[in-house]
Amino acid sequence: MYSSVLTGLGLLSCILASSVFYLGCPNQQWREQRPLQFYPALIAALVLLVVSWALFRQSFSIMSTSFTLLCLLMLALGLLPFSGVLDKPGKVLGKKKKRIQKGLEGYKPQWWLKGLCAVFLGLPIAVASAGLVAWWGPGGVVVDDRTQFVMWVITPIWLTFVSLIYLFTSVRRMLSFYVGLNLLLFTLLWTARFGG
Length: 196
Description:
Blueprint: H1 2-23, H2 38-57, H3 62-83, H4 93-105, H5 110-136, H6 144-163, H7 171-195
Helix pairs in contact: 1-2, 1-3, 2-3, 3-6, 5-6, 5-7
């Protein structure tokens, strides 16, 4: 019972962290005006994620806690942008039309390019991150638990980077960030593999 309560609180803290982070993003769709500034929202979200990780850690191993938190972040950050377009039951059709028109006014063709960049540049980020966990994580590279964790953690990391595309105001900024992160991670992976 105690473990279930802590797990539930960890889940709530993770969803709250994702929501706070989303409210600080420049492209958030929940409110007319952005209610939070980006950096305070980022710091609050990170604090809530640490709390969530600590709560999950009471019930799970380190690997399971990390995997659970990554999966929850992937789901929350991937679904939160869509929650702004949902109407509450009982609203009249006229308001629905206004909301649809408002959504079309904000449509930018660059989202397709951002999505493709995130898919193709997010996968190497996920693979390099998993490789760093394999080489620099606790224990040896061939520990059974770690091989399973490394194998399964690629997808949540990849999809998390796919879901973060709404943070970037331009394709150029997103592309430079993803390419730079790829270069950094693969340099670290090369160092871990050959440099000790």
